[in-house]
Every structure is written in structure tokens, then in C-alpha cells.
């Protein structure tokens, strides 16, 4: 397995190597000009790396499941027969999206995404 940490850019490290310092205007804690700011940024970077590394097995497991054809997420709101019926009614102009949404007790945006 390739260690993807080698591909992650370290923007603040590059700024520091260039001889400049970083100070966030929106967050007083993100400031490489002070020891406290450098400590805080180092701590936050460590937490971010931990989160990435600990979620990698979950992402790999989900990718394997998708490769096997496992459906991920919520079940569809309509059966294939209901979808075909709704699309047929829309195509014929027999009903509006709002009518079909009321018929199937769904939101109009669900029918809109279907169309």
C-alpha cells in the first residue's frame, strides 16, 4: 500500500521554509509567529492526520462493498414499477410533478430528481 502522506502538501511548512510566517486573520490561534500558535497548529495537524488514518479502513471497507454491488445509503423512495409509472405520467403530460408527489406521498423535489 502506498503511504499517501508523501503526497499531502504541507503548506505551512513550505511557508516557513521560505522564511515567511503565517497568521490567520479569522482565527487568532492559527499564527506561526508565536510558540503558542505553532503548538496549536501542530496539535491540530496531528488530530487531522489521526482522523485520516483512522477513517481509511472504513473507506476501504465501503469501497470493497461497492465493488461487490452492495447498495450504500438510504433505500429508494419508489419501487422500479412506481418510478416507471411516474416517468410515464410525466412524459404523457397526464400529471404534474406536484400531482405525482402527492400520489406517492413524497416531496416534489424527489419527483423532480427522478425526472
How would you describe what is shown here?
- With 115 residues, this protein is mainly α.
- The chain has helices spanning 11-17, 35-67, 80-92, 97-104, 108-114.
- The protein has two domains: 4-67; 80-114, no CATH class.
- The longest helix has 33 residues, at 35-67.
- The chain is elongated, with a radius of gyration of 25 Å.
- Residues 54-80 are annotated as: Disordered.
- Residues 73-111 form the Resolvase HTH domain.
Annotation keywords:
Homeodomain-like_sf; 115 residues; elongated; mainly alpha; 59% helix; single chain
Q: What portion of the residues fall into strands of 2 or more residues?
A: under 5%
| Cα-based radius of gyration, to the nearest Å | 25 Å
**DSSP strand count:** 0
Shape: elongated
Can you count the helices? 5
Mean pLDDT: 83
Number of individual domains: 2
Poorly predicted spans: none
Helix-strand string: HHHHH
Measured between the Cα atoms of the first and last residue, the distance is 42 Å
The biggest beta sheet is recorded as:
none
| Helical content class | 55-70%
Pfam families: HTH_7 (PF02796), Resolvase (PF00239)
InterPro entries: Homeodomain-like_sf, Resolv_N, Resolvase-like_N_sf, Resolvase_HTH_dom
Family: Belongs to the site-specific recombinase resolvase family.
Domain Resolvase HTH: 73-111
